[in-house]
Amino acid sequence: MSHLGNLLELPEGSRLTGVTLHDVGIMPRHRWMAAHLQVVLLPETAEPSASAGALSVFLPEVFASVHGTSPDGGSWAAFLLLPRSDRQVILRDVIALAPLRRALGLLGLDEAAARSMPLTGKALQGMYWQRDTPDTDSWPAEEMLLGLLVELTGVPLKDAVEFAARSGAEWAPSGQRKRLVSLLESWSVE
Description:
5 strands, 5-stranded antiparallel β-sheet, 8 helices, alpha+beta, globular, 43% helix
């Protein structure tokens, strides 16, 4: 199973139905920067795409949202947030989960159905090392998260890294990001 799949703690047979990347503007390219993964188990009557879209509007610094269904008929949504300040990294879940709980309350959804976990730069790098991926030590958190999203769609992480790191005419960190995004785009049209 993918690293994000394990962190989502979804029942066996759960299905990913959508991935949305959100514009976070220009991010500082610090490898140590933490991210937050937030997961919401939605009521059976909720449509996962609409719920993820509505919730993401309320979340500051949301980098990506994903959603899907569970074999029992339930659905879920998850959000990857990239904090911009040291204060948010230090306070972790306290600051990161507050907007999501507020959004759930505004939408009439159960606030207790949400959980958050910090993903430090070191933890992200560890996920890559476990898959024996080449030369990702200098990747910023944003690109590491993109690689993990690609892995969530079924592409082995090592293959995604090798594709992203291909040198060529457009080789540059932005070219690396573009290649990871292209892998996500190819999943969305399959």
